[in-house]
Amino acid sequence: MGSSSFCGSTTMKAFLALTFLAALSLVAGANLKHLTPRDIFAPVNPKYTEQEWQEIYAAQKPSPEYYPDFKKGTEPQPEFAGKVHVPLDEAHQRITGGYTASRGQFPWQVAIIVEDTWFCGGSLISSRWVLAAAQCAGRIYQIVLGANRIDGTETGSVIVTSRRSIVHPQYDESTINNDIAVIELPSPVSFTTYIRPVRLRYVAGDAAGARVRVSGWGKTSDSSSSISPTLNYVDLTVITNTACANVYGSIITYTKFCTATTGGKSPCSGDNGGPSVYLESDGTYTQVGIVSFVSVAGCQLGHPAGFTRATSYLSWIESNTGIIIGA
């Protein structure tokens, strides 16, 4: 998507004013049902039937927890700094099978409303750029930063309108390859307690066995009729690409990774484009993935969730945004 210059006509000014007011009404209003989650569903490898896949996953036992885990007290939660996270009961689980995020827990998380119709997630990677999925591309975006709820006004949240994005030129919806894009904000955003970029850098290895944390406003169950008004998150374990290819076949490439969704814990429709992050030993979160696809059968049946491997595209991000990404 290329940049567009705004004309100074009265018609264009009126259009922009109406667009801005529509965006504000979305944030301040309680009705999100007109927004359709922008997502892609991957067909399951026909080697097994749906019933057979459910039996296979039900028989699996959790792997030994030898992988790096999140350190207690290191999550960036300004209002709960130093306190141990206590899991909520099942009645409060979200995303699916996850938990409600606290305000400021994910300061890089953004909501993206595409042409006042589609909804996606994204992540702030600098004062001027948002990282998203290619499937979320459009002509005009309302981007909400610093928010936990998108159905009501929150102090410290910001909404901006953008008309410029860059989609990977080799994006292929049929294979879900190169599902990555960047969106340029109209002016640099100021960093605050609730608005802060996520770190990007190269992370060695295929990440299999590692825990990643996924956040978004996507549906909280397969039966949900709309996106969630509240930001949610879930911790998932990365599986090998070989194991994922046993489910989805040849669409699984080295520029993707998958996570297990045991117990119905999974991203879902509307989480697409959002970040998956990994807590490194220095206590800082690094974005390693972009939510890309789930099984066509649904989010809660135990099929792996698929991500664009962000670390495979660091050079592309650098060359298109001018951001200098450290080692």
Structural summary, described in words:
This protein is of the alpha+beta class. Among the domains are: 107-198 and 314-324, Trypsin-like serine proteases (Thrombin, subunit H, Beta Barrel); 210-311, Trypsin-like serine proteases (Thrombin, subunit H). Helix content is 14%, strand content 24%. It contains four helices and 16 strands. The protein has helices at residues 10-28, 50-59, 241-248, 314-321, and strands at residues 36-37, 40-42, 99-100, 109-114, 118-124, 129-132, 141-145, 158-162, 165-167, 181-184, 211-216, 232-239, 256-259, 275-279, 285-295, 305-309. The strands form two sheets. Strands 1, 4, 5, 6, 7, 8, 9 and 10 form an eight-stranded mixed β-sheet that branches. The protein has a six-stranded antiparallel barrel with strand order 11-12-13-16-15-14. The longest helix is centred in the first third of the chain and has 19 residues, at 10-28. It is globular and about 50 Å long. The model is unreliable at 1-30 and 60-94 (pLDDT under 50). Residues 95-322 form the Peptidase S1 domain. InterPro entries: Peptidase_S1_PA, Peptidase_S1_PA_chymotrypsin, Peptidase_S1A, Trypsin_dom. Residues 1-29 form the signal peptide. Keywords: Disulfide bond, Hydrolase, Protease, Secreted, Serine protease, Signal, Zymogen. GO terms for molecular function: serine-type endopeptidase activity.
